[in-house]
Design brief:
It contains five helices and 16 strands.
Length: 431
């Protein structure tokens, strides 16, 4: 029985010893694996350092991929004799700096990490797989086709730079002119009667406007219109005027808010020639008879609507001064002056509406409404011109002009109202 217990104890001790040995073996295996990885990392570091030193020797690495002297650095690590021969030889080897640097790098690697060497030069020779050009410089065959001459050096001359500063032009000029004709022929035996006549009317409008795009505007408009007609029944006058206007409008504006302006407006108008009637020697009007000057202080609204097809201005002058001069004394009472007087001064209010509406590509309507009252007399004029553009230089016009003026003598039929209308066809030009 005693031997049985002794044998059991010995068996237990042996089993414990085996387990401890297995644990130590596993730990040793893990240590060996870790050491192997660390050795590989170290070898890469050493090789990188050697490559960096070789780059200082060789000025250009462009030929490394085709030069056999670098082959040993990238092939599996093999022990070559050239490094040991160069290190132990008493006589100097060739002065190939690249081969010497590679040999030095390989010898350093052999001494530090001999465990990484997989084969030797003798083994490779025995197997017949060793290249003979590992220490031979590979020279590139470069054929020089043409030598390009260096570009001539052109002296750089600094040319003077002229800086031109243009002052903005705030002035705009506009011209509109037309010459219209009308002819009407009626034979003496025409069943409805009538009278042959010829007429012509010419009109020009000059505009010179200033706008500094900030606060100030200054508008100038000069309108001139003169027309004549002939008729067989008039035995006193061969030619007499039927349209006669000479008018200047000037406005100085200071912007108040957006399209609203404080304005000072000057309006001056008269006619060119004597006003006559058929078979009547009386002169009804003349140059500066009458001649009106109106100065108004107020506000103006700039109109821009219908996609800029309707443009113009609305001017209101609550405070206005009007001066009237009549050169012919015989016409003084006709135009509201005292008999024998040349001048008339009064104060009042006035309104001026000046619009242009481009109704289509060929039809345009221009209208002007002017009203003045001294609260003793009143004047209202409404001019309407419809223009049909036939071509670039030909147009047809329809002019409608109602007027109210209670400063003169009252007519039995029309009262203080007056009316003028004409239509014509002729030449026109605008720029």
């Amino acid at each position: 029985m005693k031997y049985r217990y002794i044998l059991f104890f010995v068996a237990v001790m042996l089993m414990a010893s085996n387990v401890s040995a297995q644990r130590k073996g596993n730990n040793n295996a893990k240590s060996a694996t870790t050491q192997l990885v660390q050795n590989y990392v170290d070898s890469l570091t050493v090789l990188r350092q050697q490559l960096d030193s070789i780059r200082f020797v060789n000025d250009s690495l462009k030929i490394e991929a085709t030069d056999g002297r670098y082959y040993r650095l990238f092939a599996p690590l093999t022990f070559y004799h050239s490094g040991a021969d160069r290190l132990l030889s008493l006589t100097p080897k060739s002065d190939d700096e690249v081969a010497a640097a590679v040999d030095e790098a390989m010898m350093s690697l052999y001494l530090r990490r001999p465990d990484l060497v997989k084969a030797s030069e003798s083994q490779l020779k025995a197997s017949g797989s060793l290249r003979d050009d590992v220490n031979t410089e590979v020279k590139q065959q470069v054929e020089l086709v043409e030598i390009a001459a260096p570009a001539p050096e052109v002296p750089q001359e600094v040319a003077p730079l002229a800086v031109e500063v243009k002052k903005p032009n705030f002035w705009k000029f506009k011209f509109d002119g037309n010459l219209q004709f009308l002819q009407n022929y009626v034979s003496d035996n025409w069943h409805k009667g009538g009278e042959s006549n010829y007429s012509a009317v010419g009109a020009t409008v000059f505009e010179l406007n200033y706008n500094d795009k900030d606060k100030v505007t200054f508008d100038n408009k000069l309108e001139m219109k003169l027309g004549f007609q002939t008729s067989r029944s008039d035995t006193v006058h061969k030619v007499k005027p039927n349209n006669d206007v000479l008018r200047y409008t000037g406005k100085l504006g200071l912007q108040a808010h957006k399209k609203w302006y404080y304005t000072l407006q000057l309006l001056a108008y008269t006619q060119f020639a004597r006003g006559l009637k058929s078979n009547d020697k009386t002169t009804y009007s003349d140059f500066t008879s009458p001649f009106d000057i109106n100065i108004g202080l107020g506000m103006e609204y700039k109109v821009e609507a219908l996609n800029k097809k309707l443009t113009g201005s609305l001017n209101f002058s609550p405070l206005s001064y009007n001066f009237r001069f009549v050169d012919r004394l015989s016409l003084s009472t006709k135009y509201g002056l005292k008999e024998g007087s040349h001048t008339l001064n009064d104060f009042g209010s006035q309104i001026t509406i000046d619009l242009a509406w481009k109704m289509s590509e060929v039809i345009t309507w221009k209208t002007r409404l002017y009203g003045y009252t001294s609260y003793k007399r009143a004047l209202l004029e409404w001019e309407n011109l419809f223009t049909l553009k036939v071509s670039k230089y030909i147009s047809a016009n329809l002019f409608v002009y109602p007027r109210f003026d209670d400063s003169g003598k009252r007519d039995d039929d029309m009262g203080y109202f007056q009316f003028q209308e004409y239509s014509s066809l002729g030449l026109s030009y605008t720029f």
